[in-house]
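chain below, 488 aa
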Amino acid sequence: MPTPRTWTTAALLALGAGCTVGPNYKRPAPAGPTPAAFKEQQQPAPGGGAAGDWKRAQPGDASLRGKWWQLFGDPQLDALEERIAVSNQTLKAAVAQYLAARDQVRVARAGYYPTLSLGPSATHTHESQSQPGTVPGVTRYSFNTFVLPLQASWEPDLWGQVRRTVEQARANVDASAADLANVELSLRSELALDYFQLRGLDTQRQLLESTLASDVDYLQLTQVRFKGGIATEVDVAQAETQVRNVKAQSIDLGVARAQMEHAIAMLVGLPPSSFSLPPSTAPMILPDVPLGVPSALLERRPDVAAAERRVAAANAAIGIATAAYYPNVTLGAQAGLESGLLGTLFQVSSFFWSLGGSATELLFDAGRRHALTDQARDLYQGQVATYRQSVLNAFREVEDNLAALRVLAEEAEAEGLAVQAARRSLALSTQRYKGGVTTYLEVLTAQTIQLSSERTQADIVTRRYTASVQLVKALGGGWDATTLARKD
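prediction:
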């Protein structure tokens, strides 16, 4: 009979001789060739600068970093962003999912090792006096049995099923880590978008309040002219209407601002009733976002990385399904103590042991293994398509926001000229009205045009900030696939 050492050596050799079935993973190519440059990088730049609020990243240039929101140079935004990681419940849920995926790797790795179990038992047996073969008058036995067994069972990973399972679990960990990064990027981007929209509303309200003060002066001027018999009552009514309309517009902004403030409160993990942001119209920095090459998106977008890692997990699932075609080999061992008396249980004579092994091959399953393998291959192709679509979507989002920044830069320049012209028009109309050359209607028209132009100009500024944030998000926010951690 072989010794335990011989048995263990043979088992290790059998494990080492095993193979890993199923296809080895290769990253799928994106759908179509990866462009050498973004389309907007080839657009002519107004004034010889960048075609929008971005710049070409150079070697050694300051590129996007983890705290990308610091590009905007706003201390209040920086403080809010720092609270995301501490208080946001959506991010905490994503962290928990990542930790659960990491724990699954430990579950899969346990398949490499044998299982040990200890099952002590104690029984008292009294034989029946009426069982077949019993001799009348002969007393049957009553006896105790005490057993302290230690059992070991091990299924060598001869076909790589465990290895593929660990491979799949590790790929899922990477995908979960990328999902976590994507959730954080989305939350921080949403916070920045809400913040800049709120700041835009503050700018709009300041503009309306300034306009309201000017319109009140015009109303008082018109009332004085009416009392002097120079203006008509219609002029007074028109001036008063203008004041009321501008005041109503200023009040109406309060609804949108309150909603933006509440949205920010939710993002930083606070109830809206205990959070407020004071109005601010301090100047902000509209940064030039460093732009790399399109191929970098494959490493800088966490959603693209997550999709690619799920392709790897699906590829490992094919190997797991393929391993089911091969026999399962199980090695077992048992050792322990057994005695009829508790006092002699721990003596050498009570020791027992056994070694054994078995192999099982499924001969017929009505095509179940074949169907599961086909299913795994089909799911793999589906994940490949999802990955390729995520790459195309990444390219589209970057191009969208580059185009938006370029167009908005041109629009801001045009609207700035329009505002200057509207202000000159109002000044000329005011002089004509004071000189009695025209009615207040001309002034009212000039006031309306100027207010509309200035509000449009303020809205363009807000849209440029939000487009910059969306571009940063489309570029991955400074994240990189090399940061995927495998703490397993």
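The first strand starts at residue 54 and ends at 56. Residues 65 and 478 are 4 Å apart (CA to CA).
thats it, cya
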